[in-house]
Amino acid sequence: MKTVTLAVAAVGLLATSTLALEPLTIKGSKFFHSDGTQYYMKGIAYQRSPLDPLIDKKQCQMDAKLMKELGANAIRVYHVDSSADHTDCMKAFEDIGVYAFIDLDDFPTYIEQDGPPHWNDTQLTAYTKTLDNFAGFSNLGGVFVGNEIITRSNGSFAAPYIKAAVRDVKAYMEEKKFARKIPTGYSAADIAELRPNLQNYLACGDDMSVNVDFFGLNAYEWCGEETDYHISGYDQLNKNATDYPVPIFFSETGCNVPTPRTFKDQFAIFGPEMQDVWSGAIIYEWIQEDNKYGLIDYGSADPKTAIGGDTWARGGTPTPLPDFTVLRDVWSSVSPTGVKLDKYTSTNGPISCPDSTSGIWNVNPTSALPTLGQTAQAAEASGTPADRAAATTNSGAATTTSSQNAAGTNEAMVRLSGGLVAAVIAAAALL
């Protein structure tokens, strides 16, 4: 353990001494660059390899070159190997001005919606290993404690376990005296019945030691030529976020039904309708797969070496697809004005925690957060708000029972082909 710890520390020190891109800061509901200009995210979901796309220097350099042409300034990576050296890839993206937003969980340690939900030492240790690995990189934009953990309207009983993870990750940074506090947030599925309860719950009250520093929404509502700001429901999303006290952005977007994609929602997100409220968007996704969301294509996989029967190569020379060209042209034509840090005064004060609503939002706003090692009570998991202070605890290792979440916390994680998902889950089971 000491050897691993020292190696991770060395990676962090090296990153600090070699990378020039200054860390982002947060004030109120906005991200800022070190020069005081507002940061708007033009990001790409970059899970080229299902287990870790940030360990192949040559591949990262090739992809980074195209991302620069695209106009990207962020990537989101869902799974990484916390024991690997990510210096070369982080440097490749730093060199083109790209910040990385990293999910902390791995396949065995995501927070489950079913099972019932739990949060324990095994999960926290996995999260903090990933955090330690990346904390020294100045172009680490932030970390997610989960992706689409809640995937149905009555799944809100898992929300306190998300917030408990935020609390304990932040406490770890405080205890270890991190040079900077890494922004910590959550990426949510777009569940209409939960709007805006979940986003508000994760940021309610004035105790930032338990609240998210940012909130991401995975939304695929703006689809095709016939939709617009109002038809898509973006107007309602904007209304729900208007007084949000921390940055909010689209952590996945880019509807591909029908095709070809137009990415016209970007004009609203970075335009006068939404630029004062939202901090940008992450487009799903970089690599072409059976789901047809790709911006680039590595070609067909060699059937002799393909993982789990996957038909798409997951590395090689990236070739831009038509969606790449469309997105590049759209992004080059949107320039949100933003506000300077020294001119910005946040007027969004603390927001109230949402009241419990039977069958929809089953969280008692006055109930204590789960303690480390706690598992949801049966009554709570069935939809009845419970007094968690009286719940029994279980500090044992997490049991991975949800194949849906293990494959990437439902359809929006990596949307891998069925064969590849099976292979990834099988590999995860051996970890």
UniProtKB/TrEMBL annotation:
UniProt-listed SUPFAM superfamilies: (Trans)glycosidases
Superkingdom, taxonomy of origin: Eukaryota
Compartment list: Cell membrane
Topology of the protein relative to the lipid bilayer: Lipid-anchor; GPI-anchor
GO molecular function: 1,3-beta-glucanosyltransferase activity
Keywords attached to this entry: Glycoprotein, GPI-anchor, Lipoprotein, Membrane, Signal, Transferase
Pfam families membership: Glyco_hydro_72
Cleaved signal peptide residues: 1-20
GO cellular component: plasma membrane; side of membrane
Biased composition annotated in UniProt, kind: Low complexity: 389-405
One GO term (biological process): fungal-type cell wall (1->3)-beta-D-glucan biosynthetic process
Family the entry assigns: Belongs to the glycosyl hydrolase 72 family.
Identification of the protein by name: 1,3-beta-glucanosyltransferase
Organism in which the protein naturally occurs: Drechslerella dactyloides
